[in-house]
Each structure stands twice: as C-alpha cells, then as structure tokens.
Amino acid sequence: MIFIQWNKIKSRRNLLLSIAIANLASLTTGMMMTWLSPILEKLSKSDDNNPLGNAITSAQSSWIASFHQISGIVGPFAYAYLRNRIGRKYTMLLTVVPYIIAYPMAAFASEVEMFYIARFLAGFGIGGVFSVIPTYIAEVSDVAIRGVLCSTFSVCLCFGMLLSYVFGAYLSVTYFNMLELVVPVLMVALFYLLPETPYCLIEKDRRDTAQQTLVYLRGTTEVQIELKQIEVQVEEYTKNKGTFCDIFKTKKLTRAFLIAVLLVSICQFCGIDVVTSFTQNIFESAGVSMDPALPPIVIGAVQIVASLITPIAIDRAGRKALLIISAVCVIIPEIFLGLFFHLQEQGYDVTNLSWMPITTLTAYVIAYNLGLGPVPWIVSFPLWPEFLPVWANIPLKVVIEAVC
Predict the structure, then answer these.
(1) Distance, CA of 145 to CA of 23 (rounded, Å)
(2) Residues 265-319: tens digit of each pLDDT
(3) Measured distance CA(87)–CA(95) in Å, rounded
(4) Rg of the chain's alpha carbons, rounded to an integer?
(5) 8 A C-beta contact, residue 33 and residue 126
(6) Which of 1, 67, 149, 218 is the most exposed place for a label (fewest CB within 10 A)?
C-alpha cells in the first residue's frame, strides 16, 4: 500500500512543489512556536547575549510568552473569512506577513515592549496558518494520497520547532531572528508558483481554470472524473450551507461540538505549549550536567520521529485506543518530572536523578505526538456537519489559544 502511494506521489511533481511551498508557512510557524525557549533563556540573563542589557523580570517573561495567545484568538476568524473571500492562495500569502514584520522587530529590539508587539503579531500568523494551510493541502491533493500529504503539515511544524532549538542555542538574538526571517521571505519569493485550489475555483464558477489547475497538479489530462466529483461536493455544500449558530439547533450537533471542544481542550491542558516554550528553562532549572541547549534539540528531534510514526500508529491501533494510551503515557512522565522538582525544592540531593528531566520529557513528547497531539483534530473534524466546512475549526482554535 505504501509503495503504491509512493508511486502516485512521485508522479505528482507539481503537486509536491505546491505543498512544499505552502509548508514553508508551516515551517516558520513551528519555528515561532519554539522561538520562546532560546529567546527567554538569553533575555533572562544580564550579559552580552541580552540585547536589552538587563535581565527581564518573571512578569515580563510571562507577557512575552502570552501575547501571541491574544492575537491567536482573533487570527483564525480573520483568516477563515479571508480564505473564502479572496481564495486560499492569497490568504495563505497573508499568513506569513505577520512573521515578516515580527522577526526583524525582535531582531533589533532594544525595549521589552518590542518583543511584546512582535509576539502579538506572530499570533495572527500562527492562527492563520492553522486555519489555511491544512485546508489548502487537502484541497490540492487527490484522495488516494491526501492522508499522507496532509501529514506533512505536522512534520514541517515539528521540523521548524527543531530548527529554533538548534539556531537559538548558538546564535545571538539578532542573527537568530534574521535567519528565521529567511523562511517566510522565501515563501513570498516562490508564491507565484502556487496555484489556487480546484475547490475554490469551482466555488467562484471558474471551471476552465479549475480544470487547468487539476491538469497541472496531477500531471495528466485525465481529470474529468475528479473535476466532476469536486463540482458535486461544492454544489452540495452550497445547497446545504448553514451558519455556526446552526450547531446549537439540534442535540446531535451540540453534542458533536462539545465532544470536539473537549478533545482539543484536553490536548492543550496537558501542557504541551509550556514544554515547547520553556524547554531550555526547564533543563536549566533542573541543573542537568550537560549543556542545557542540547536536551531541547533532542526533544525537537524526537518530535519529528514521532510525527512520522503517527499516521502508521493511527491506522494500526485505532484512534480511540491511541488517544487513551497516549493520555495515560503523558500523565506518567509528568508525575515523575513534578516529583523531581518537588524533591529539588525540598532540598534533597537529586544529583543521581539528573537523567530524569530529559528522560521524562522525551517520553512525554513521544506520547503526546502519538495521540493527544494529532488524534483530537482527526476525530473532531468528522463530527461536524457538511454545511460547516469553513467555520468548523474556528471554535476549536479559539479554545486552544484561550486556554494556553
């Protein structure tokens, strides 16, 4: 089965190119999601690596860590609206604009307020990428290989996280941010190579252009059957189109909404944002014997491996079983890590337990990425009625950003 999919993927060169360019936004979002870990480590010390001169306070650190959550609540609404008004392609371009402004601002920041603004702007980009990029990838991909290609979104996110851990550990604040700026700028430079999605073109009654786009993406002129299927799906959606408030008109839809919100809320309440944002700080507080910059890199590499294994694990173990197993396996490392810091705070000698922080966090990241991370999203979307494909993920994204 994998061999058959690989042959189909190889024959879709233009499709792969389009998804690769789109995933530059995913890559820079992953980089921004762990940007905080190396930056806070530098800003919390009064040395030459701190562009502010003096170490920031714990309150200022918390504000830098939180500002993107505020704009992250608004971002998904704005970008979901735009992707229907101006199309997926141009909305996707707009997702990287906040990054292009935020990175230089952080690179040359001389006051802590500039970091606040940079993080606030970045939140719009993060919310937009989660709203637009998965939709774009799904709509340009053909059904036979859609699952594999959609998984590239999470892989690129994890790879971006790793890059931030690596670059941030050994570069100054200025060089680190300017290097990360390269990715969104590269996406803008390659933007002209991106086609609009066939679904969006059909929605706008541009059938001939949709057909040409399918020929470009599939590498064959035999696209009539798929084009007809897209037309039927778009027509059915248009005919049954409803509003977000329709969710609460029946018990069935309300129940689906609550289940979806609960799943994604659990996903966030397990503390993944704290782990990815404060990884380096956690290891410094633990007093590990090795360079505190190395364990975050290990964690980032583990995330990539776990994200590659996830699609296979979901098919083999099933979504419900994997979700339960993942939840249990996330709790156990957190208990032991909490016990480690409790013993440390009580004055016990934890030198012989110095291996525990990296071991528990590695186990935590593996368990999270195999279940709690991807499964709630995979399970949630089928719960939504067909007349809400555009707005379905908005409440979930709002909950995610609000509870972080």
Answers:
(1) 17
(2) 777 788 887 887 777 778 777 776 677 678 788 888 888 888 777 777 766 767 7
(3) 13
(4) 22
(5) yes
(6) 1
